[in-house]
């Protein structure tokens, strides 16, 4: 009965040693190929996120351990990224405060200079070209090379009566 069962279970190819050898070679090749793929995935992705998903586990505990390690690594990366974001935000906030204080200081200086100009303008002689500030502003030109304004020279225009 056992002899008949062995012949029937494998079919007509049950005693074919060549076929058995071929199946063993295929299985061995498949196992080697799987190991090569796993090694390649581990090398390309250091954090192991891809290969954990493709790995075949013998027990559920191994799978849980591997995925727990992956989760811990991802949480560490997340914490590092959040810390970096907080650092950048605090740096940005400090720069913003610095820029705002600079703008306020420059606005105060501008107001001072404007008030000085308004007071001094009345003291300038009427026959000088500096008595008209709007004309001076129109004639002034910004020089990009030197980074300053080119202001016309003061000229006193004397009018003679006949």
From TrEMBL:
Coiled coil: 57-123
Record's keyword terms, sorted: Coiled coil
Protein name in UniProt: KIF17 protein
UniProt source species: Caloenas nicobarica (Nicobar pigeon)
